[in-house]
Amino acid sequence: MRIKTILAINNRNGLNALKILKAIDIFDIKYILLHPRNNIKYGDEILSEVPEKSTILNWEKSNRDDILKKVQTEELDFLLSVNFAYIFKKNFLECFKETFNLHTGYLPYNRGMHPNVWPIIDGTPAGVTLHTMDAEIDKGKIIYQEKVEVEEIDTGKTLYEKLENKSMDVLKIGLDGYYTEKIKPFIPEEEGTYHSHQDFVDLFEINLKKENHFIRKLMALSFSPYTNSYFIDKNNHKKYVELKIIEESEYILKYEKLILGETPRSYSNTKEKNWCNHIKNKIGTDSLEINNKDLKVELEFYLNNITKPDIDNLAKSLIDTLFKARKEGELATGVLIDEDDSIINILNIAKKKVNKGEEGCLIKIYEKSKKKLV
User: Fold this and answer.
1) Structural domains of the chain, count
2) Would you say residue 330 lies in a domain?
3) CA-CA distances (angstroms) from residue 368 to 126, 339, 346, 371?
């Protein structure tokens, strides 16, 4: 008897999980549950891997009750969640015989958001965990987990990549061990830790009163092109650190354009691509040939019923169009990545609510001034 399955997936990890379950014959993938259309990552790639007999569902607010009724009627066996950012209520989870989640944290530590950040901040263990789901976030029984080493030179990005690379090994070993009864799920004895997204945001501002000595020391020793500050890693090698402080006044406005018209909602649909081509044509090709310069971009969106994913997805797509420097999967909201994959600038995003029919985007492009600041 095959296991009637629904996959709740997003991003590259979700895509890879879909590929793995397709290759395991015991799983009959009835449904693929994706994020709302304005918040999907790797949507096109996931759609290209969906089995012919599987049905696509989007977790829109307007149809969640319908999805609940559907899964209740189908009597599905198994729910697997991978990189799915929405919390399932108890009545939804109870529709399945088994519910698993793949979490890029070493549970019970770093439940919740941004598990790639906290091991660097507080020294908690990093890793990937396959666990059962219940009404509490990232709790339930642990099926299988593996630790990932946090090195002295790891950043939030490098640790994220390590966790992602480890994820599919944990998923494959965990599923095999569970269904062959070689693995017995357990409840961890430790309470562990939990972090919300706001906890992550609270890290952004550096408090000079509390962290004055460290920051001032870096400031004093930063003297480009010389490299002075360093630490010794576990292999007794020096790793150099340099601090770069950029004043907003260092940039001068090079281009400003207000584009009005209905703004698309989805990052991956044809309508948005056409809209971005419209922006490209309006601005003109000459204005777009500005790669390999130190730039700052401000996007001020005028949207109806605005949401955070709207802003994120449109920012990504507009940066695609304006700078043509993005490689698939390498552009994070908030930064502009040049053709050599180096981060060259900060992306600032503002938003305003407007009346229906007045949607659009104000684009400002700044270039770093060559004038010396006093």
Assistant:
1) 3
2) yes
3) 38, 18, 12, 9
